[in-house]
Each structure stands twice: as structure tokens, then as C-alpha cells.
Amino acid sequence: MITDALLNFLALGGNQSLVAAAGVSFQVGNIIDLLGEGVGLAPTNIIGNVTLFGAPDAMGVGGARPELVVTIGTAATTATTATLDLALQAAPDLGTPTYQPGTWVDIETTGPISAANLTAGQFIMRLPWVPPFPPGLRPRYLRLYAIIPSATDFTAGTIASALVTTVRDDQFNKYAANNFVAS
User: Fold this and answer.
1) Which of 56, 107, 151, 152 could bridge 80 with an S-S bond, Cβ 3.0-4.6 Å?
2) Which domain holds residue 73?
3) CA 170 to each of CA 9, 82, 161: distance values in angstroms, whole numbers, following the listed order
4) CB-based burial of residue 58 (10 Å sphere; 0-12 exposed, 13-18 middle, 19+ buried)?
5) Domain-located, residue 175
6) Could you please report the per-residue DSSP string of 102-164?
């Protein structure tokens, strides 16, 4: 597993709370700068034509394809039937003078997850890095955004980690069908 702080939204044991005011959506952990410089910093390692940096395929989809793994720390509870929808979002660089993220665009979402499925230790998002949409977006920045419907909220719960790995490092085969008998 890769746990480089520059390539993770929320490090192991980060435990970001899901408790917020009713209907308030929020960013989970850090913004990842695919260039590695950091939000607000000018690119220093562009070779060739000087243009705004942007990854055409969301960070090198190819041989070692990155995957995003998000886990729950403390189980979520709600009195208002709140659901959690996590969105992996991308934004282009606005360029000089601020080098801030532009408009955030959803690349992938989990869809609404009920509190009953937000149990301690549960993987709630496991997905391979996918190319950004729409084509030609060329993002420099990525973030994980938690969307909570209006007039609902969580009374407890945390996200334990949101990590980028180069391998699927969970035991996914434990959910395989047991449809054979050895005699």
C-alpha cells in the first residue's frame, strides 16, 4: 500500500467527522495536486511549452493503475435518515497568479449510502482511477467530497481513511459465492 501524504485524501487514522449541520456537504481530507507542488503554488517542473499543467488521464492510468479506498472509522448514526454520497472530483488549474482549483467536476460517485451501511471498518468506496469526464478536462487537482442531502445530518460517525493505492489491498474475495462442494 502507498501511504504518501501527498497522494492521499485522508491518511490512516485521520478520522474526519461526518457530523455537520443539516444538509452541509464538505471536503474529505486534503486536495491532491497531481503535479505535486500543492494548491496555490506555481508549477516548476514543466518541460516544453509553458501551459497550465493538467493530467489527461487522471494520473497515469496504465501499468500500475491507482485505486481509491475509503473506510469508515466510527459507525454513522442519524436521526434524520441521512445518507452519504462520496464524489471523487477533479478541477483544472486556474493559473497565474493564484494557481487555485477551477470548477469541480464529479468523476465518480458512490451513490447514496444509508447509515446502516456505514459501519465501523466498512469499505465504502473502492474504485480504480478512471479518466476524467468530460474529455479534455485535464485536471491538476483532485478532491473527495461528501454530499449529505438537505435537512438531514449524522449524529455520529467518522471516515477513518481515504487512501490511494497501486493495488487492491482488501480481501475482496471474502464476498465470493460459495457455490461448490468438495467431496
Assistant:
1) 152
2) 5-39+53-169
3) 18, 27, 13
4) buried
5) no
6) -S-EEEEE---EEGGG--TT-EEEEEE----SSTT---SEEEEEEE--TT---SB-EEEEEEE
How many domains in the chain? 1
* Structure letter (DSSP) for residue 93: B
Q: Please state whether beta strands 105-109 and 83-91 pair in parallel, antiparallel, or not at all (unpaired).
A: antiparallel
pLDDT, one tens digit for every residue, the chain (183 residues): 445 666 789 888 789 999 999 999 999 999 988 877 789 888 876 666 656 777 665 555 556 677 888 999 999 999 999 999 999 999 988 888 888 999 999 989 999 999 999 999 999 998 887 777 777 778 888 999 999 999 999 999 999 999 888 776 666 666 677 776 676
